[in-house]
């Protein structure tokens, strides 16, 4: 018989605490063992009740969510899910929390409505995942990446690196798909990527209001120019485009002058934005001159997109199990035969740059 997951709810809003509790008491195998209204009370109850998972509000008076998270993790690894307001400020703090060791995050619904129902479903799913995850390993990986970023030299973009690069690179593309555990992993990857590189399209499963601050964060640590994608953007070498939360992203036109299309629609493979949508469109426009990269995340979004890239003659790298917070999307793509080579995260940038040098730069006749 499966073990009951013990949950501690931490939020300064009594309405939010009750809403979360109402969702969880109906979920089989989940037990709410306590509720706290501030960080100090959360620390006391965490010691007394030994929960398996803590849902932690970010904005609280006195001891805020980040300080509470740091103190919790300093005592022992524990699965913490951050519950954030749907604002750019809340998004920025949430990204900090993920780098510090929070397992996952959710955004608060505006009111009890259809959005709240979706929130409840996602909350239950993420709590169950968090309870079965290897918290020690995930927290260790997050802290190692954060430490390496702190120790790294500040990034200074040179004028030559911000240019569009060799013309041949505009006829190639790198397509990255990623989900749970993605923000810290992508931050680490982009810190090491160096021009010249073809345009990079990124689908990171995130809600609206989160993708713009995330793109800013990547831009701040990278020698590439990173932005949240907009419809009509001309995809250019040495630039990366992050799909906006709540919309699909595709490319259209011809390689060399392709532009981004942002559009609404039904979720694909359970997500919007969808990795499958982006990768399939890239395969159609750029053909064999596509490097696909499928990374950490739950579910199977991206598996069909990786298949499309390989069917068009492109190449696919998949993050390995050892360095993935969640070996899910990348596992499905690998098991189904749609990954050419697996890689540890710390080798990702080197392999990407080497592939670009050997396939996109050293063989310019292929694009004529």
Could you walk me through the main structural features you see in this protein, from its secondary elements to its overall organization?
By secondary structure, the chain is of the alpha/beta class. The chain folds into two domains: 5-145, Response regulator (Rossmann fold); 167-367, 3-Layer(aba) Sandwich (Rossmann fold), CATH 3.40.50. 41% of the residues lie in helices and 19% in strands. It contains twelve helices and 14 strands. It has helices at residues 14-25, 39-49, 65-75, 88-100, 114-132, 135-151, 182-192, 211-221, 275-286, 303-311, 329-335, 345-361, and strands spanning 5-10, 30-36, 53-57, 79-84, 104-107, 173-178, 200-204, 225-228, 239-242, 248-252, 259-263, 290-294, 315-319, 341-343. Strands 8-9-7-6-12-13-14 form a seven-stranded parallel sheet, with helices on both faces. A five-stranded parallel sheet has the order 2-1-3-4-5, sandwiched between helices. Helix 3 (65-75) runs parallel beside helix 4 (88-100), helix 4 (88-100) packs across helix 8 (211-221) and helix 6 runs parallel beside helix 7. The radius of gyration is 21 Å and the shape is elongated. The mean pLDDT is 91.
Gap between N and C termini: 62 Å
CATH class term of the largest domain: Alpha Beta
Which residues sit in consecutive blocks of at least 5 with pLDDT less than 50?
Answer: none
State the total count of DSSP E strands: 14
Rg computed from alpha carbons, rounded to a whole number of angstroms: 21 Å
Strand content: 15-25%
Biggest sheet: strands side by side, in what order? Answer: 8-9-7-6-12-13-14
Report the average pLDDT across residues. 91
Helix content: 40-55%
Derived from helix and strand composition plus strand pairing, the structural class reads alpha/beta
């Amino acid at each position: 018989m499966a073990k009951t997951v013990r949950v501690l709810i931490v939020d300064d809003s009594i309405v939010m605490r009750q809403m979360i509790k109402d969702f969880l008491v109906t979920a089989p195998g989940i037990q709410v063992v306590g509720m706290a209204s501030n960080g100090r009370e959360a620390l006391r109850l965490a010691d007394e009740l030994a929960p398996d998972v803590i849902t932690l509000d970010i904005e609280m008076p006195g001891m805020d969510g980040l300080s509470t998270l740091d103190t919790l993790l300093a005592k022992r690894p524990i699965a913490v899910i951050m519950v954030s307001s749907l604002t750019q400020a809340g998004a920025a703090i949430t990204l900090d929390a993920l780098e510090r060791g929070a397992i996952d995050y959710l955004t608060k619904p505006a009111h009890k409505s259809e959005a709240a129902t979706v929130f409840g479903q996602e909350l239950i799913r993420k709590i169950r995942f968090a309870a079965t995850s290897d918290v020690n390993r995930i927290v260790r990986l997050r802290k190692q990446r954060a430490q390496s970023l702190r120790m790294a030299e500040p990034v200074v973009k040179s004028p030559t690196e911000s240019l569009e690069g060799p013309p041949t690179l505009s006829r190639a593309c790198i397509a990255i798909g990623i989900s749970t555990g993605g923000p810290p992993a992508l931050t680490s990857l982009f810190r090491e990527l160096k021009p010249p590189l073809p345009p990079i399209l990124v689908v990171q499963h995130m809600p609206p209001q989160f993708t713009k601050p995330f793109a800013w964060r990547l831009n701040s640590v990278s020698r590439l120019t990173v932005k949240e994608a907009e419809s009509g953007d001309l995809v250019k070498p040495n630039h990366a485009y992050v799909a906006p939360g709540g919309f699909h992203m595709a490319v259209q036109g011809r390689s060399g002058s392709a532009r981004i299309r942002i559009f609404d629609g039904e979720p694909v493979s359970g997500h919007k934005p969808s990795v499958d949508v982006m990768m399939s469109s890239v395969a159609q426009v750029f053909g064999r001159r596509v490097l696909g990269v499928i990374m950490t995340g739950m579910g199977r979004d991206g598996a069909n997109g990786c298949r499309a890239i390989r069917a068009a003659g492109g190449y696919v790298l998949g993050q390995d199990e050892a360095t993935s917070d969640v070996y899910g999307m990348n596992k499905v793509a690998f098991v189904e035969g749609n990954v050419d080579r697996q890689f540890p995260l710390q080798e990702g940038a080197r392999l990407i740059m080497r592939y670009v040098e050997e396939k996109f730069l050293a063989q310019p006749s292929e694009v004529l």
